[in-house]
Design brief:
- The complex is a heterodimer.
- By secondary structure, chain A is α+β, with helices and mostly antiparallel strands.
- The model of chain A has no long low-confidence stretch (mean pLDDT 96).
- Helices cover 27% and strands 15% of the residues of chain A.
- In chain A, the strands form two sheets. In chain A, strands 1-7-3-9-2 form a five-stranded antiparallel beta sheet. Chain A has a three-stranded antiparallel beta sheet with strand order 6-4-8, with no helix packed on it.
- The radius of gyration of chain A is 20 Å and the shape is globular.
- Chain B is mostly beta strands.
- A four-stranded antiparallel beta sheet of chain B has the order 2-1-4-3.
- Classes of the chains: A alpha+beta, B mainly beta.
- At the A-B interface, strand 2, strand 5, strand 8 and helix 7 of A face strand 1 and strand 2 of B.
Chain lengths: 293, 105
Amino acid sequence: MDELLTTDEMATFVARGFLEFPGVIPDELNAAATDELHSIMATWGSPARPFAPASGDPWSDIYPDPSAVGAVLRHPSVRRIVDSLVGPEAVFDHDFVHFKPAGDPGFQPLHADAVIDPNTAFDIQIFYFPHAVSPDGGGTGFVPGTHLRRVHETQVGRYRHLRGERRWSGPAGSILVFHHGLWHRGMENPGSADRLMYKIRLNPTRPQVRRWAADDLPDRTSAANDHIFATFDPTRIGMTLRHREDWMGEQDHRLELIARAELWRYLTGDAHFDLDWYHSRLERRAGLGAVVS
Amino acid sequence: MNPETERQQLLFVWTDESSLHGRIVGWSFFDGNDPLADLTELEYRRGVDVLAAGWRLIQGSQLVNRPAGDEHQHGVLEFEWIFERIVALRPHPHGDHPQGVHPHE
């Protein structure tokens, strides 16, 4: 396994707001973590809770040995996510153990966590599933590509079904990582197995610029004038960044491209990167005359 | 509507452009005295298909210009349509809504 995320994985994260890593945590660690998560859940909010980190604690210090949850968080498959997206000097925001009993028909409204967040720098949320989740097993629901839209918490709870919404299912030891803005929800669990899931949010403390395995960036990046309505190279990163979700209309997608290009500029330090000339057109013309409002 | 004999069904749909001819990209369904009612599959592809099936449009979202300086901002889905139809009342099928109260995932 590579020690860091690849440029293509980073572009997928920017375009879709998540990455998925099925079955990367080994079974013996999943078993130990399951026991510890039940202990945490049983003692939540009390002094008896094992390994209770505080917001702002260094990522590297939380859940110290012999914590099984800590062993999961420091597993190479998780470490490469953290190191690449928020850096090893990231700090703890909060975490929670989510338990969904078999047969529970309750579901959450669709929501984005925390509050409206206008920053380009972003947090990540890691979801860990210590056991297999079947398609009807109450896996987390999420809507790819919603992460850059500026909404407030359950403001989006009115949306019961959006085309392209995912409902997580997969093998034991699976990891999902979300951009903090991704719309998601806990789903009903009509299946026959209880569902346990652990979620942790991390904040970066340094610019998230080229923290991944970015050596291939000069070869993978698209030209600033890579333009789907003019000339473009379908083998370059621009095609990954243009990914269009099934719920997106044309006007949605164009605003997404503008937002994704801004995020890619931040991540790469390339102030001239663009997708389909949207930024370039405006920036090149801006000096020609005053803005009319 | 006579609440002794009838109930209201509501269908919210969101289209991918501002016309009812737009493709439906999302929907939510509410059914009178059934708090758990849901439509996991929608048989209509476009907003006009809902109308053609006999639903009454009771609200469409206003078209709002983005304010100066915020032209590229996006958030909630813009093109929302609310339809209703009135159908015969039936006995309460489920009882109270059992939605959980634990913190959001």
